[in-house]
Amino acid sequence: MRIRILGRAAVSILISVFTMQAAFAQTVPDGLHNYMVDPGFEDGTAFTEQGYPGWNYWVNEGFSDDIYPHSGTWCGGLPADPPDWSCGFGQWVGGLTADARYIATAFGRLAEYDPADPNEWGLYIGVQQLDGTLFPGNKVQKQVFDPEYQPVILFFAMGDTNTGADVWAWKGPGGEATVDDYGVWDYHNYLNNPDFEAGALTGWDYWGGYSSGCFVDPGEKNGGAYGGGIGDGEGGFGQWVSELAPNTTYCLNGWAKVENDGDIAYVGVKNHGNPEVSFQIQSTVWTEGTVAFTTGAENTGAEVYFWKGSGEKAYCDDLTVCLMVEGPTTHVQQDGIGIPQSFFLGQNFPNPFNPATTIAYAVPVKGRVRLSVGDIRGRETVTLVDAVQNAGAYTAVFDASSAASGVYFYRLETEGAVITKKMTVIK
């Protein structure tokens, strides 16, 4: 089901690219929270009139989409080839602190993109009016071109008197776009010495036993005074990141380059309870990369690394591990005393997953509840719940350690409803 709302006259968006490369010290504040209203589009506040809390449509047509959510049940959508050339929506985020630094995060996808068509710009995700004005350069933004959800991270600083900013999505001609799981967070970084400004590899351990040739270099840096490096041949270094939350999505972002064109270096994360992820760098100029990772149901740490298998020197700098999504993003409508108003089955989180995922569901009345998982041929794999339960919201964990990769269906059966959704195991 899609809820479509027509927009109003176009507003001008001044497009610019600004990248903050300053070196920040580690700070992981207690009580970290998301400043945005309805960041995952689960609360039904999407596309109200401008000036209301939550998402406001800007130009032409925006819609709530339940076909391609990144997590939860809903996401925000922008149509293919919009009338009047472009479309977008945004949210005014207040409660920020003047002259303070923040991190904005989101996931975006673009169904189709033709790089040979000069009229297609891709999907833009950004933050603007950082000092309350709309002049060029007073924003940060990134483009998305991929049909699969891509993580986006933006570093920004408020003006010396401003306490709010616009967070938005925008596109022109081309395929349909969807965005989900936005966040605006106080600046934080779970890494120690992420920018190598200690002047040594303090906090980092030689990765895989290749200790020779790992160094800190004052001549090759992306920001600040130092960058991290690996000498000729195979080598690397890593850092164990602790104090993470289980079943929660984080972002690894950083800059890297290789000395010799064609060599490959990797920045990645592993040992967090789900498959290893990384981005690779083959450029001789500083290049930014971003990957998202989700901790396992019982994992509270991860190993972040910089590594190459061969070739000449490689460098990295300004690495960040920050929060993207706080656990499963599901929404259950409740009455005044916290009882669900309807039957609910949320999208499993994470998805795809390996080996475990969490399924949220809710029942408005006491009764027998059955939650089961089946394969693509309809054969039941496992029964997660088969019991009489009181009205309320619940979660169940599906451990697919013994299951093969592929698509599976999970099914909620009660006396009042039968709901089925699909999930994907990747090994």
Give structural notes:
The protein has 427 residues and is mainly beta. The chain folds into 3 domains: 2-186, Jelly Rolls, CATH 2.60.120; 205-325, Galactose-binding domain-like (Jelly Rolls, Sandwich), CATH 2.60.120; 344-425, Macroglobulin (MG2) domain (Immunoglobulin-like, Sandwich). 0% of the residues lie in helices and 44% in strands. It contains no helices and 28 strands. The chain has strands at 2-5, 56-59, 62-65, 75-78, 87-93, 101-110, 123-128, 139-144, 150-157, 165-171, 177-186, 205-206, 214-217, 227-230, 235-241, 249-258, 265-270, 277-281, 287-294, 302-308, 314-325, 344-345, 356-363, 367-375, 380-389, 392-399, 406-413, 418-425. The strands form 6 sheets. Strands 1-3-4-11-6-9 form a 6-stranded antiparallel beta sheet, with no helix packed on it. A hairpin with a 4-residue loop joins β24 and β25 (380-389). The radius of gyration is 23 Å and the shape is globular. It starts with a strand and ends with a strand.
Summarize the structure.
This protein has 427 residues and is an all-beta fold. The chain has no helices and 28 strands.
Which terms summarize this structure?
427 residues; mainly beta; Jelly Rolls; Immunoglobulin-like; 3 domains; six-stranded antiparallel β-sheet; five-stranded antiparallel β-sheet
Distance from N terminus to C terminus (CA atoms, Å) equals 31 Å
Number of DSSP helical runs: 0
**Topology as a string of helices (H) and strands (E):** EEEEEEEEEEEEEEEEEEEEEEEEEEEE
Overall pLDDT metric: 85
What sort of overall outline do the alpha carbons produce when their principal axes are compared?
Answer: globular
Structural class: mainly beta
Largest sheet: 6 strands, antiparallel
Compute the CA-based radius of gyration: 23 Å
Q: In total, how many domains does the architecture comprise?
A: 3
CATH class of the largest domain: Mainly Beta
Give the spatial strand order of the biggest sheet: 1-3-4-11-6-9
Helix content bin = under 10%
- Name given to the CATH homologous superfamily of the largest domain: Galactose-binding domain-like
Number of beta strands = 28
Portion of residues in beta strands equals 35-45%
CATH architectural type of the largest domain: Sandwich
